[in-house]
Amino acid sequence: MWDWTFTFEILPVLARAAIMTIEATALGFAIAATLGLVLASIRLAFPAAGVVVTVLVELIRSTPLLIQIFFLYFVLPKAGIVLDAFTAGVAAIGVHYAAYCSEVYRAGFENVPRGQWEASIALNLSPWNTFKDIILPQALPPVVPALGNYLIALFKETPLLSAIAVLELMQTAKNIGSETFRYTEPVTLVGVFFLVMSLVSAGMVRMLESWLQRR
Amino acid sequence: MNDMPMVRFENVSKRYGPLTVLDNLNLDIGRGEKVSIIGPSGSGKTTVLRMLMTLEAINDGVLWVDGEPMTHMMQNGKLVPATIKHIRRIRAKIGMVFQSFNLFPHMTAMGNCIEAPITVLGMKRSEAEERAAELLDMVGLSAKKDHYPSQLSGGQQQRVAIARALAMRPKIMLFDEVTSALDPELVGEVLQVIRKIGREHDLTMLMVTHQMGFAKEFSDRVCFFYQGKICEQGAPAEIFGNPKNERTRQFLNAVLEAG
Amino acid sequence: MWIRMLTAMLAATLLLIALLSANPEYRLFMPGLLEGAVLTVEITLLGAVLAVFMALIAALAKLYGPLPIRWLSTTYIEIFRGTSALVQLFWLYFVLPQFGIFLDAFLVAVLALGLNIGAYGAEVVRGAIVSVARGQWEASIALNMSKAQMLRRIILPQAFTAMIPPWGNLFIELVKSTSLVSLITLADLTFKAQQMNQSTLKTVPVFTLVLLIYLAISLTVTIAMRLLEQRTSRGLTRGRVA
Lengths: 215, 259, 242
Ligand SMILES: Nc1ncnc2c1ncn2[C@@H]1O[C@H](COP(=O)(O)OP(=O)(O)O)[C@@H](O)[C@H]1O
Ligand SMILES: [Mg+2]
Description:
By secondary structure, chain A is mainly alpha-helical. Chain A has eight helices and no strands. Chain A has helices spanning 4-45, 47-62, 65-75, 85-110, 114-122, 127-157, 169-180, 184-214. In chain A, helix 1 runs antiparallel to helix 6 (127-157) and helix 6 runs antiparallel to helix 8 (184-214). Chain A is flat, with a radius of gyration of 21 Å. By secondary structure, chain B is of the alpha/beta class. Chain B has a domain at 104-169. In chain B, strand 6 (72-75) and strand 7 form a beta hairpin. The longest helix of chain B is centred in the C-terminal third of the chain and has 17 residues, at 184-200. Chain C has one domain: Orthogonal Bundle (MetI-like fold), CATH 1.10.3720. Chain C is built from ten helices and no strands. Chain C has helices at 2-21, 24-27, 30-64, 67-82, 85-95, 105-130, 134-142, 147-177, 189-200, 203-237. Bound molecules: adenosine-5'-diphosphate and magnesium ion (MG). The site of adenosine-5'-diphosphate has 11 residues of chain B, from strand 2 and helix 1.
């Protein structure tokens, strides 16, 4: 059933693809974390724009990531923006998770007591300085674990990039499968990789959480 | 068998980790006897009731109810730890009313009172409803039988809880500070109901209370707990009128001073 | 208030779909896409049933089962939450046949997605059960109920209310993850879109319509769950004494 020789043969190939998966995760999350913060800050600074952001977030969260990947990959070229598969895919993942992250930041902002804003006004701080020096440093640390959980969720969705033929883990495993007619080893190895990575990172998030609580 | 007391704590101990909450407790409660438990906070009063209701396991000793062991059962002439089946058979004789009412929020007053008679005793719904209606009438809540707990005041909720416990026809009723969560003006209506069931039902009653006046007037015996032991016990007139123990005296002074 | 905003969004979405369909460029695609949407909805519904079933079983097993059963259910939950839905789908689709088990693609889709969401649901159910006040258990013991009676009559009905919002989110995740089944040759909404895109190269109309249809499905699910939430919480908060 399980062929160890074959397993060791494909391991280096899969390892290279795993690096691609991790790169996609890192870049995608960088976009998600930054754009999410921007969206949440817009909501905070311009309540009038809040409705637009709310609707946008709801839109992004209500439709499949796979369709969003296709959309960026196939529709943007029509507007003259040609992205390679990796860039388009990572951008779509980043935007999708930015919607989730913006909700996390919003909760963080809401948890900062009103008195902090009022005290800053009393000290005659500018709104920008209040935001940057007073509010952000208090709002961010408590939400780091929640962001960590979305990082893990994002990581687990990178196999979707295989749909536009990005050579990440899943695509590589499928290619190996179609060439050798053996799917058991490559697909199972991919599963094991994701399982181990998720369990380890979930453990790290929990440690971070308890450290933040003790702090 | 009838010469056995209704409840017997025989060398019962209860520990939470290194903390000994009850230390080698021996206590008999007679048939139909009304016993009040008083004592400072943390002295183990609630734990006594919770062990009897099987909400807490005991660490040492044997608990007897109505002439039979409850925490244990006889096997080849020896006492062995009881099975859940045995515990449930004995536990059927006991009812309990909690400080925080613990009514089922998704059921009406009537629903609360018929749930266990139907599911546990296998009563017919009509029969259970008839009996529950009588009990709700007895606690003065006929008009509220279709109300949900969230629509009732604390005093009304506690009276429903009493009716609910009585609907299971227990022989023993446990009351754990049942008026402590109530606004002062609602305490009276609940105590009134307890007096009434004391008169009208042939029940053995064990109550933890901070209402010294009520304990004095209502109970046959008062037990003063201190640090997991019975420090002094006796007739209410003795305990309240002429406490022998220094700690009892201090406790009563402190309580009476507070009002 | 929130339901109203969601309903408005749903109405706007449907209106937009109707308006776009008036344009022949778009109308062309509607019949095929609706066909795909039917499959998407079917997989969603069956997957949801399986997910709820698995979640209940796994949560109760993890809470109250004997040790081996508890391990089994923990393993199920961790494996299906720890690997991605697509990996699970491919594993069932490509690897099972190598063990001589041939399942129809539709069955694989329902199984993979139902098991995946069920694993997340198990933690939701477990969380809701343990968050029921301890006094409710104690009152049930004092009324001499059996464990099964307590769970069925007292604990689960109360946990149910707490479970609805997180299940709403999970059902949305389910709707979205049905798009993955297009990658195992099932002709769902996403598959149809891909197909039409490749054959006509009318990328903008195709993907705009598909996004709107998914949005309509998701919003319907969200609104339904909000309504359910309102209905069930009524008993618990009915006319709360001020
Ligand atoms: N579940 C528990 N775990 C650890 N300690 C407990 C627990 N329940 C009660 N205790 C301790 O047992 C002692 C007696 O508690 P209790 O019977 O509730 O006292 P009382 O009702 O007289 O105030 C207290 O010191 C309390 O802190
Ligand atoms: Mg107490």
